[in-house]
Give the backbone structure.
Amino acid sequence: MTDSGLLAAGLAALAGLAAGRAWAKARRRDLFGRSAFRSSPHYTQGLHYLAAGETHRAMSELGKVARDEPEAFEILLVLGNLHRDTGQVERAMQIHQGLVERGDLSRAERAHALVCLGADQRAAGFIDRATRTFEDVLEMEPRNIHALAGLQNLHEEQRRWREAFEIQTRLGRLRKSDEGLVLGHIQAEIGREALAAGRTEEAEKAFRTALALDKRVFPAHLGLADIALASDPRRAASVLQEAMAVAPERAYLAFERLARAYSASGEPSRFVTLCESILTRDPRDWRARLALARHLRAGGRPDEAYGLLLRALNENPHVLLVHLEVWRTLRDLGVDDEPVARYVVACEESVFYRDPHICTRCRYRADDMLWRCPHCHQWNTFVEERLGPTAGVL
Ligand SMILES: [Zn+2]
């Protein structure tokens, strides 16, 4: 579960639990029972700060409520979550552990407190404890979506893909949502691991399952192409062409394999034709230009490659991939070899964001295409990062 999901769950606890099932009891106890906190001005002020996103002020106000009304379950629940969100994980665990140990909680309240404790334990890096905590909740409430989502995240982080697949399937049923894309990506991970371990049949099965779930699972196409490449390069090429047709915005991820597949099947010129047709459709596609330049340079035509690269540079001057290729091409063109070679090595060793990609959901940056965001845990959210030209700035 995301932190904001937990915060939302906490807010739901504030609004929902207090106003819903517990309402009749709360009315009876009124100012003397567990809902007495609601008459505190600090409570209203705390909610106001929460809604305004002023977390530290909200914590201060809600802390005062908790001091005056130590029985206030909902306040402590949210306060614990806020401590976790602000990095005070130890304190969050203390608060939620204290809640879990209380004897006056309903089953739903106890489950809720345990889910929050599980999230604290995960944030603190206690993976096994967090797993057990979420499993405890599911024993009490097998359909608890927050516990399932928490467990799902842990499985994904630990690369336990089969468990992740099972939990994600259950989540999809409970949410009544189409999880095909996520399930497909999980299958593709199963396939990638099997392939890396040399279990080709298992890998192929997983990639096919992935594509049956959702055709847009690009790494599954790439995996199938990798399997076919050695024995049947024509087949690999057709798999990659299909992938590019399904997800043209990801086409560049298939270029390198496609060039190899065409060469292996004795038709290297088909790659040139492909890049040229992409460039005719979209002259600004710097990746097709770069791929074609690489291909031409490898085929001993650095002068043609150089022209393409200068044009690619106009389209995306910020990306180091193009600059590196320019220098490699200059070297092939006979520009003084040694200093250029040193420059290329220095660039390759020093630059972190050589080919920046960014998560469209949380803006997390990475130096490559990632299928699952390590920050917001979403699948299929990365795109290449494009910076606009900075006119007038050198
Ligand atoms: Zn993200």
The beta strands are 357-359, 365-366, 382-384.
